[in-house]
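Shapes recur. One chain:

:::
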Amino acid sequence: MIPNLMFVGLYYQHYGEFDFILPFVLLYAFEKAGTFLLSGFGRVINPYAVWLIGNITAIIGCGMLLFGTGDNYFWDAGAILTGLGLSCFSPMYRATRDALKSEKAWLFTVSLYVGYLLLGGYLIFVMQLRSINMVTVISAVLGLVVISTVQCLLLWKRNPYSGNRIHERKTIRWDQFAYAAVVLLFTFAVRFYKQTATLWMIIWVGVGMALLILLTVCIKHEKYRMHSLRTLWYGAERNFVTIYSLIFFMAIGKYDLVMVSYLMIGIGVVVAKLVAPVFGKLCLAIAGGGIEKRNSDLSGSGYEQNVSSSGESESKSVVPGIYEPICIIAANAASCLMLLPWTACYMVGVAVTVVFVSMGSSSSIKAYLQDERFIVTERRLVRARFYGLGAVIEQAFMMIAMFIFSLVILGDGTDAISSYALREGDAANNPVFFFTLIACIVFNTVWGLVYCRKRV
């Protein structure tokens, strides 16, 4: 979340300048494509090494950004390296943590809470100063990566994958390289369209979506499992509340509300971890039958939801076929609060939607960790690819919807997005954003309900 907050903070000063925006476009695009690129080189069997190398790559990228200016290539090259370095951080960090926790050798039991503390501190920092400069942003990213690198080095002697190559020999996957290329171009186009509002960018979005669908149909011969499809939805729904809030409130000039909406997202994630066990018991009660009876019936089936060695917040003794559909339906219902005309209702809708998305997403993790189609060290990475792909699909739909409504209502497909990119808010654009919000909620609701039909 922090890079998005930094971007918002910088926007206070830069008014959509091209040279300022391009590094963030490149960072975002390469961050989304990096998981596919890593998988293309083969099955990952040393997550620790990827975590460390990624951090070093991001540090080099941040260094180049610090020495760069808008009229040279340091910004662009630095942004690409930073994006690639950060792209696989989450799955590789968590895969390493899982292995060390199983051996009771993990050193950083409070790291999650430190992360939330840093996020809260940054929110307060941005809201108080209302503006920051590029050096501040790069330094903040660099500081976070350095913290992660120190963590990694302190675990050097405990590395559970010591002596392993990064990739398994002779497991190169050309389909993942193809995905990486399409996702890279696609996310670059979507992000660039949002920031600069040039009409020809919408063509990239359409072509990228077509290629993505065609590639999926041609390459994937076996059926996707439901935990993979639902992960797509979780990534899409989370991206929806994040990106729409950013675009809408910046377009109408209410920058403080961008920060409030991001604060609501953070609160939603924390609340999800606290209420997940209680919600799990409630789901069992709704489904009928006591917890003890259900535990007995499911003993040894692999569908019990316990707090795993990964430390993820997962609901105890909940059948995924009951728990996740309820989370999806509840998240869709909560998102409808964003349609009401009161800001308080919008913020409550964001927070409650994130609560249910986070609970459902955490529940789905166990299915990945038990999926024997993938080696243990890659299961987190596979999930990260699906989650990121869902975010890409959601952004594409949102931008296309906004383009269409802007064209129909205002006569120009870029008018509404220009109010975001160039801070030229106009009340005439409000219907475009409102109908785009409706379209996204309907799209996500239909998509989510389809995935609720099957139980496994």
Remarks:
- Confidence is low (pLDDT under 50) at residues 290-320.
- The longest helix spans residues 255-287.
- The chain is about 75% helix and 0% strand.
